[in-house]
Amino acid sequence: MGRTVPSFRPALEHEIESWKDFKRALRPEEQKIFDKLMNFARIHADAGSMSARPMLSEVLFISFAVEQEKKIEALEEKVKKLEEMIKGKG
What we know:
Layout: H1 8-17, H2 20-25, H3 28-43, H4 45-51, H5 56-89
């Protein structure tokens, strides 16, 4: 029997490709950010394939959120360390 559901990675690439007109309408610096976000979805493709979400855009958006939350937490930790350094000198 053949597969009735396309494998996830090609389907994800197709979903990303479907956003090409949106990307083209962005400014060049925004296009770089767009590409970075799409790479987040690629990074989390294994998790996406396990989620069995009918809408691939959901996988895109949750991947963005996970990566952005990681960045926020890292920045919060840096701010905390800097505040502690400042308090230690004062």
